[in-house]
Amino acid sequence: MTLLEIMACALALCLAGMLLLSQAMDRHCSQLLARAEPGALQRALLRLWGAGLLVLALWLCLQGWGASVGFVAWLGWLSVGALGVAWLLAYAPRGGALLVALAGLAALVWTGIRVWAA
User: Fold this and answer.
1) Measured on CA atoms in the order 109, 112, 115, 117, is the torsion positive or negative?
2) How many structural domains are present in the chain?
3) pTM of the model as a whole
4) Whether 43 contacts 24, CB under 8 Å
5) Domain, as residue range, for 53
6) How far apart are the first and last CA of the chain?
7) Sign of the C-alpha dihedral computed for residues 17, 19, 21 and 23 taken in this order
8) How many Å apart are CA 84 and CA 89, to the nearest integer?
9) Nearest one of 110, 104, 60, 57 to 85, comparing CA atoms
10) Distance (Å, rounded) from C-alpha 73 to C-alpha 66?
11) What is the pLDDT of residues 79-105, one digit of tens each?
12) In the chain, pLDDT over 90 holds for what percent of residues?
């Protein structure tokens, strides 16, 4: 993968991961869904998938930049992802969540294709 692909996929995966983690919380779940509280199983799955996407973004950053720079770049993408999701939930909850979900899915598929082809 090129460095630009790694950056785009890491950002999209961090955004999607932060969105999933936010949906495990009652307050943010009520912004997107009609029911305000996710069940215990749904909450656990959202946290698991969110953490998995963040770990995949970390792996991408480590593959692209190495351990020292990759970890710092991942922390930067985490910060951008958290701020982006917070902004989207405040100003455009439904449309922003759809956009982030599609970007995360595209990054997941693109990463899978590029890693599998290599």
Assistant:
1) negative
2) 1
3) 0.91
4) yes
5) 3-117
6) 9
7) negative
8) 9
9) 104
10) 10
11) 999 999 999 988 988 888 899 999 999
12) 69
